[in-house]
Amino acid sequence: MNPPCARCGKIVYPTEKVSCLDKNWHKGCFHCEVCKMTLNMKNYKGYDKKPYCNAHYPKTSFTIVADTPENLRLRQQSELQSQVKYKKDFEESKGRGFSMVSDTPEMQRLRRTQEQISNAKYHEDFERARGRGFTPGLDDPSMERYQRANQMMGERVYRALYDYAAQDHDEVSFRDGDVIINAQPIDEGWMYGTVQRTGKSGMLPANYVECCN
After folding, report:
1. Measured by CB atoms within 10 angstroms of the end CB, which terminus of the chain is less buried, N or C?
2. Does residue 60 lie within any of the structural domains?
3. How far, in Å, CA of 174 to CA of 179, rounded?
4. Within the chain, where are the H helices?
5. Would you state the pLDDT for residue 63?
6. Are 193 and 158 in contact (CB under 8 A)?
């Protein structure tokens, strides 16, 4: 029994039969699905059991399954995770204050100055405890700056304008409205003082406080 044509459905006789893609075709019915160009066994390309010419052969890509329910769910989950991470990073950056620029050359210089002054303060307290007193070396620029600040300012009182969380071991935390006593300017943008509420002393940003004197 002669089979039907996969294209037109009519009987295909042996003299005009083309067997390809697990189907039988009339020679005239075996043409490209797009441009209708007649094909043969040498120039056809099969896709999904249908014949195509080389120019109209479908290009396979991963976008075919991009909108499946599973991929949509994964995409939504990824977007949610990105939003959560962005919010977390934003909240952390709010709490870090000036730490976002702590690695600039200027901030590195200020940090070194702070460490030198902290070391000097530690040695001064240590020597005083031993009863010998302490005199910083005159050749140390940071020590001269520290001495000039002490001589010019004496004891001054400041009030905190904002909350501040210490970013380093030699800094001090305080809250909005806290009273800062014995405040002394150390370098541009930084001071040394004692938070009256906690009794803790250390470095603090000068633009976070205002003078009460």
Report:
1. N
2. yes
3. 9
4. 69-96, 105-129, 141-153
5. 53
6. yes
